Amino acid sequence: MAQSDAPAHPARDLAAERDQATRLMQQGQSLAALPLVEDLAAASPDDATIQGWLAYCLYGKSRANVAADEAEALRGRARAAALRARQLGSKWLLLNDLLTALDAPATAAQAFSSNPEANARMKEGEQAFGKGDNDGALAAYSAALKIDPKLYAAALFAGDVCFRTKDLACAAEWFGTAVAIEPARETAYRYWGDALMASGKALEAREKFIEAVIAEPVQKPWAALANWAKKNNCQLTAPKIERPKIGDDPRTMAVNPAEIDDQDGTGRAAWIGYSVTRAAWRQALFAKKYPHETQYRHTLEEEAAALNAVADGLHRQKAAHLDPQLANIALLRRDGLLEAWILLSGGADAGIAQDYAAYRATHHVELRAYFDKYIIHPVPQ
């Protein structure tokens, strides 16, 4: 058979496709960008930027009006692309948030609201947002919030739309609404801080990033605060206190008194109080103070009591050359911030973490003061 004389299909202009995809991504039109990004990913599978875009576009499509099985498939593809982007060295800040969302498979079919009408408006908003229709997205999210006034996601996403359109006053109003709905969730504070940073209000942004950590002291708000600190020539530090390790047997002393003397005047003998107090809690005090809990756990009250016992020992000894870590205990006790240190910097274990919400509810002032006095250096003027 004779070879066809028809001209060969012209090669795709990948550079032009990338330029077009870049414009669409910058405009927030992730759904419109998806076909282009898929082509680019197929042509350049080792491009970290394109893989990140692909993950974002696929995730955006999964949140629009698609069937549950299609949404799950899209999320699977998005996660694979996000992991590929990370493997290729992507430094895109959004990538970590994206992977966090994608690592929660149970949310694939999860409704935004138990109210079907509010949920439908949210889906419309997500679809509009993915198409770059900012007005449509904002209208849909606003409608959802009117139907379900406790819908945190509606206020949060509305603020995100305003942030994308650079209407920072509008963004702040919506993020404030989200905070009022659920003050113990970190995301709205963090997004609000981003909006304030974008408007050059570094000190106000600092407050929101701190509030994000206080709301939920997990990795993302800490990372946002660290990013703020870096941009504003500040450092995040915390008092160093290495406590004796406690074994499983409550009868075993964590500190051997025979191995500790205070002839050098450093106050190290005060650590005996830590060990004795922890042992007492393990043996009897926990059961007495928490009669409704059937199994021992390490509590904030126990840890604070143990560190206060160390501080009491230091006061009695009047050490001449106090060990720096023991000095930190004394200073924190003086300022009433031992509990704040335990919860935010002391590597709170699962037992202590159970006490965080109750402490935050009644000691917000102390948690806030801890950042100013001990975490952020220097405090910007």
Sum this structure up briefly:
This protein is mainly α. It contains 19 helices and two strands.
What does the model show?
With 381 residues, the chain is mostly helical. The chain folds into three domains: 14-107, Serine Threonine Protein Phosphatase 5, Tetratricopeptide repeat; 116-236, Tetratricopeptide repeat domain (Serine Threonine Protein Phosphatase 5, Tetratricopeptide repeat, Alpha Horseshoe), CATH 1.25.40; 257-377, no CATH class. The protein is 64% helix and 1% strand. It is built from 19 helices and two strands. It has helices at residues 14-26, 30-43, 48-62, 68-87, 94-102, 116-130, 134-147, 152-164, 168-181, 187-198, 202-215, 219-231, 271-289, 300-317, 324-334, 338-344, 350-353, 356-362, 364-375, and strands at 235-236, 376-377. A two-stranded antiparallel ribbon has the order 1-2. Helix 1 (14-26) runs antiparallel to helix 2, helix 8 (152-164) runs antiparallel to helix 9 and helix 11 (202-215) packs antiparallel against helix 12. The longest helix is centred in the first third of the chain and has 20 residues, at 68-87. It is elongated, with a radius of gyration of 27 Å.
Strand-helix topology:
Layout: H1 14-26, H2 30-43, H3 48-62, H4 68-87, H5 94-102, H6 116-130, H7 134-147, H8 152-164, H9 168-181, H10 187-198, H11 202-215, H12 219-231, E1 235-236, H13 271-289, H14 300-317, H15 324-334, H16 338-344, H17 350-353, H18 356-362, H19 364-375, E2 376-377
Antiparallel strand pairs: 1-2
Helix pairs in contact: 1-2, 2-3, 3-4, 4-5, 6-7, 7-8, 8-9, 8-10, 9-10, 10-11, 11-12, 13-14, 14-15, 14-16
